[in-house]
Amino acid sequence: MGVFDPNGFTFNRNNPNRFISGFLNQNGVNSPYLTDDIYFDDNDVLRCSPDFDIENNLGQVNQLLCGYAALVQVYHEKMQVYKGDHAVLHKRSFNKLMQKRETNMGINLPKNMVNTFAGFFAGIPAKINYVPSGQSVNSPLDDKSKAINDWLSNALNSSHYSDVLFELSKKADIYGRSYLIAYLDDKKDIKFNDVSPEQCLMVYDNKLASNPKFAIYFNQVGSNFFGTLYTADSIYNFSSEDLSDVSKMKNLKQPNPLETIPVAELPENDERLGMFDDAISAIDKLDRAYSLKFNDVEYFSNALLFLKGFKKLDSEQRKTIKRWHILQADDNASDLAGIDAKFLEKPQNDTQQEHFMDRVTSQIYQNAQIINLSDPQLGATASGDALGKKLQPMVMLADSKARKMTNAFKQLLSIMMTKCDCLDGMKAEDVVNDIQIKFTPNIPHSLLDESNIVKNLNGIVSLQTLLSYLSNVENVPQEMEQITAEKKANTIDFGNANGSNDGDYPTNNDDGSDSNNGRDNNE
Question: CA–CA distance from 182 to each of 161, 190, 253 (Å)?
Fold first, then answer.
């Protein structure tokens, strides 16, 4: 069993296949093992045997971190690509004709794709509610359920959960995975935050259930590591000096106040592939095409001037031409027909270049299942139905991610519920099972189409169903209560207007009422 040597790993940022899968083979390392007992599976997930105990093998922590640090370079490169630091910017060629180095440019499609999908998926904050089994969201809650919902709302809002989930989703799009970590603040209140795989790793056993064995949150400064090792029972706050001595590590052991590994992973997919991992080569080619196009434009702005029939220009005349852009022939010349002045044109195929760039850009978006918001054809979409069909690939991708996000967030809630003081004998896992998490895609709606649907269905379905078709109605039960209250108020106002006595209509009874108290009308 060979162990991965991080010193033998050389990261090449110009390699068009800049993602983790297969990185070991790129460097001639045939073993997937990072330590004696921890290895990578085919989906870049760290595995170990079910009976492996990291607390009895603390000497492997330093070996694991050193091996994982090589992978951090790959993750870091993914973030650099997202930020616009592309490989083409590090390639500069010398133009012999122009006698200068050509300048390249990068088109940051990865950032556009990630931000578009993150805004589509998590732009509208998720709705998280505890609904006891057998009840609906609209059912009235008992005191215990209200207390749990209040605790849940306070815990989520104190951690700014909507922003955390947005960043969690974005990091998963970039890296292929991201993490949530729960912790106790200085006031012993439980909170959570999102973390990238550049600062966190998690090891699972190789059983079918894939149970987490331990996790490490770390920061690397130079060659030094600082961080925390989490197990279900203990935590170890370590530094690089502690990693080199097993006895020091053992002395750092502290009880885990959450009594479970406080880390939950959000995989972008089972393969842990980021949104633009398989498009890196196409993005590099597109950057190169735009760079060549840009340099062509610059070439024409410095085109060569061909002169025929003119006398040799002196230096002062050449300066005059550059400054004033005027070239005048001598009227006394004997052969004016033989005089000619023009710029030399470079052979080009502008139509083919534009067609290539448009096709590659379109293919990148199609493969990622992301809609290109800058596509002029999108603006020509008139009806909501046509727009819905264009958004269908993103809707399917969002549905898949919602399931992954729900699983990850419920893992986090299971951790947080260990500190909930209002369970009153209920099991935390039972409460988490009854927590509903609803993600709403940020889809533009046609209010005209929605109103037409409501008109056509009026009298066929219930009022609650009708209101659910209106996207601007956020809380249907609340809207129904408001409609009922308005109808009641209008009925009272109508009755007061028709039944009031202003002196023109005398009453029949001494008490001012119109009732005959059951007497016959002929009396």
Answer: 12, 7, 19
* CB atoms closer than 10 angstroms to residue 41: 12
The pLDDT value given to residue 431: 92
Angle between helices 447-457 and 384-416 (to 10 degrees): 90
pLDDT in tens, 285-340: 888 888 877 666 555 555 667 777 677 777 777 777 767 666 666 666 556 667 77
Model confidence at 140, pLDDT cuts 50, 70, 90, reads confident
Q: How many CB atoms lie within 10 A of CB 338?
A: 9
Element (H, E) at 501: none
- Which residue type is seen at 391? L
Q: Collapse the DSSP code of 4 into the 3-class scheme (helix H, G, I; strand E, B; otherwise coil) and give the result.
A: coil
Least confident of 123-132, 365-374, 508-517: 508-517
Q: Measured at the alpha carbon of residue 298, what is the angle toward residues 292 and 303, in degrees to the nearest 5?
A: 120
How distant is the alpha carbon of residue 433 from its chain centre? 25
Q: How many CB atoms lie within 10 A of CB 395?
A: 15
Read off the amino acid at residue 234.
S
- The model's confidence at residue 522, banded by pLDDT at 50, 70 and 90, is very low
Higher pLDDT, 471 or 221: 221
Helices and strands, counts by H and E, the chain: 16, 16
The pLDDT assigned to 48 comes to: 95
> How far, in Å, CA of 143 to CA of 149, rounded?
10
And the tokens for 479? 């809207």
Collapsing DSSP states into helix, strand and coil, what is residue 500?
coil
Identify the helix (H) or strand (E) that includes residue 48: strand 46-48
Residue 439: which residues within 8 A CB-CB, separation 6 or more?
121, 122, 124, 126, 398, 402, 405, 406
Q: Which of 81, 38, 297, 55 is nearest to 175 (CA)?
A: 81
Torsion of CA 5, 221, 73, 275, to 10 degrees: 140
* Spatial contact of 480 and 463, defined as CB atoms under 8 Å apart: yes
What's the Cα-to-Cα distance from 205 to each of 414, 522, 523, rounded to whole Å?
Answer: 20, 94, 94
Distance in angstroms (rounded) separating the CA atoms of residues 378 and 382: 9
Q: Kindly tell me if the per-residue pLDDT of 8 is higher than 70.
A: no
| DSSP line for 436-497 | EEE--------HHHHHHHHHHHBTTB-HHHHHHT-TT---HHHHHHHHHHHHHHHHHHHHHH
**Exposure string (b/e) for 228-250, b if CB count within 10 Å is 16 or more?**
bbbbeeebbebebebbeeeeebe
| Res 518 pLDDT > 50 | no
pLDDT in tens, 66-105: 889 888 888 998 999 999 988 888 876 655 544 556 677 7
| CA–CA separation, 501 and 345 (whole Å) | 97
